[in-house]
Amino acid sequence: MKILETKQQLEKWLKKNKSPAFVPTMGFLHEAHMQLIKKAKRTNKPVLVSIFVNPKQFSAGEDCSTYPRDEKKDIAMLEKEKVDALFIPKKDEIYPKDFQQEIFHLPKKFNILEGELRKGYFQGIATVLKILFDLIKPSYVFFGQKDYQQNLLVSWLVKKYSYPIKIITIPIFREKDGLAFSSRNAYLSPEERKAVPHIHQSLVYIKNLFDEGEKNVKNLKEKLKKFLKKEPITSHIDICEILDAESLEKIETITENSIVLLYIKVGIPRLLDNIILEV
Ligand code: AMP
């Protein structure tokens, strides 16, 4: 596996490996990242993974400097998966001193939920992805359903700039007990770790109610919150919404595909999970 630290090294590699299948990550890799890579390999394009903890998507007081990192382990995992190249730039390589940040006029669905909780978050993600897409010119990019609102942003960005990129989204990949894999799970204490599969159980419970015929959003949300609060460790609910899956607009009754979105604060991290309710 080629390890590329600078734009120059990346550009040189791209000359022989045009339009790769690209998997952007923030590192501290886990099984879900490997699933994205396995999917990327199926395209038969060269597979390029990036590891970059993007400071622009963290606001003041967030965990950018303490975000978990383990480059050695990440590299070993990528080598085992036979990834063709890893782009692992330093901060200044992506944001040189004279960097002028572009302001994106984002649709209003990015000012709510995580966009409201974390000011500048989606501006920061759009900024780094545009830089990476312009540099790499991938044919495919790979994302996970876990970051649902982020995926809508990727679709918006690709459409807005007419990038000839195919976006592939994989379902949420979970531990055996239902917890969605996340680098931030590393922050959980053993007691918290034991309790957090309750988050996924709450989503399964709501999906079952929906499948049995409950379509009223207020009822579903109330039941969801009540279920989460049964476990004190999952009772700090930052976001609990059931919204139109595409526009993220509020709905009263589920008549179109909808998304149940949860952001639960457990100790240090906020854990994200979601489930699609298909009509
Ligand atoms: P991150 O390194 O957290 O920025 O994640 C990199 C990519 O992996 C993003 O597209 C995430 O949506 C995806 N991802 C992270 N965790 C999961 C998961 N449990 N299931 C599916 N995709 C995931």
Descriptive account of the structure:
- This protein is of the alpha/beta class.
- It has 2 domains: 2-170, HUPs (Rossmann fold, 3-Layer(aba) Sandwich), CATH 3.40.50; 183-270, Pantoate-beta-alanine ligase, C-terminal domain (Pantoate--beta-alanine Ligase, Chain: A,domain 2).
- Helix content is 37%, strand content 18%.
- The protein is built from 10 helices and 9 strands.
- The strands form 2 sheets. Strands 1-4-3-2-5-6 form a 6-stranded parallel β-sheet, with helices on both faces. A 3-stranded antiparallel β-sheet has the order 7-8-9, with helices on one face.
- The structure holds adenosine monophosphate.
- Residues 25-26, 32-33, 36, 143-144, 146-147, 170, 172-173, 180-183 line the site of adenosine monophosphate (AMP).
In short:
The protein is α/β, with parallel strands linked by helices and 279 residues long.
Q: Main beta sheet, described?
A: 6 strands, parallel
Round the mean pLDDT to the nearest integer and report it.
97
User: What structural class results from the helix and strand content?
Assistant: alpha/beta
Strand order of the largest sheet: 1-4-3-2-5-6
Shape: globular
Low-confidence stretches: none
- The succession of helices and strands, N to C, reads EHEHEHEHHHEHEHHHEEE
Q: Write the CATH architecture name of the largest domain.
A: 3-Layer(aba) Sandwich
Task: Summarize this structure as a short list of keywords or feature phrases.
alpha/beta, six-stranded parallel beta sheet, globular, 279 residues, single chain, 10 helices, Rossmann fold, binds adenosine monophosphate, Pantoate--beta-alanine Ligase, Chain: A,domain 2, 2 domains, three-stranded antiparallel beta sheet
